[in-house]
């Protein structure tokens, strides 16, 4: 274990083998069939990845949640109140194509197997994107996924209600097929033990007010946060590869927003993917996503084939 970027780093960095040893006697609870269902397109996930990375992480998070549950009970006793069940919120951030969705789904499945957290729910922030019609009206359709393309006040209200222990809190639903928010469709979150919130910019801070007024960040509501990290070149490669695979699968659906890319020549489709990476996703990564990495509680650093090579855990 070595400090990240020198002695002043707030992180302790573990090699893959060092991190894997922290699994202790945590049993493997996922099968190959379950892994196949959980992984995202082009994100290769093996049983060894689960055993060496996600089992220790689920063990750590189970300990953190248990400690937080005890803290909530102590606070209630001190205040002589009963606020009810308050979910533990985990935020997951990182670039497009980094594998955030797979990380989120694997953690959802594994954390639900711990006795103190049987109810785990996953929510992506895509539902809080402005609808395409509004993005077009604002002239920012090409900046979809950038911080300004989200209805952040609505997301903050949602998280505030969750942390207040409210029942049946609704969130909008996004369709990756139609590439838009689904009108009238909602997902209900009802006091889970753990809520996992996954999105590109969930660690993005707001601009600090000059007058000292309270302006909450989305991450203010997180108890723990994870950043899924990889070099730009790898992310670029994974993004283009995923785009070309989608061209042969989901893009062929008649309802797909990207249907036209399934019908063009392979070279033209690949050039489109390259243009989308350079013109949108790379800019968003450099300007908005990567600068938030050091705000995470834990960084999962990926190497080739999405294999996590290093884990950095923020010191308490």
Describe the structure.
- There is one protein chain.
- With 316 residues, this protein is α/β, with parallel strands linked by helices.
- The protein is 37% helix and 19% strand.
- The protein has an eight-stranded mixed β-sheet. A two-stranded antiparallel sheet has the order 5-6.
- The longest helix has 33 residues, at 47-79.
- The radius of gyration is 20 Å and the shape is globular.
- The model has no long low-confidence stretch (mean pLDDT 91).
Tags for this entry?
316 residues, alpha/beta, eight-stranded mixed beta sheet, two-stranded antiparallel ribbon, 19% strand, globular
Itemize the secondary structure elements and their pairings.
Blueprint: E1 2-3, E2 11-15, H1 16-20, H2 32-38, H3 47-79, E3 88-94, H4 100-111, E4 120-124, H5 132-138, H6 152-163, E5 169-175, E6 180-189, E7 194-198, E8 224-229, H7 232-248, H8 266-289, E9 298-302, E10 308-314
Parallel strand pairs: 3-7, 3-8, 4-7, 8-9
Antiparallel strand pairs: 1-2, 2-10, 5-6, 9-10
Helix pairs in contact: 3-4, 7-8
Summary, kept brief:
The chain has helices spanning 16-20, 32-38, 47-79, 100-111, 132-138, 152-163, 232-248, 266-289; strands at residues 2-3, 11-15, 88-94, 120-124, 169-175, 180-189, 194-198, 224-229, 298-302, 308-314. With 316 residues, it is of the alpha/beta class. Strand 1 and strand 2 (11-15) form a beta hairpin.
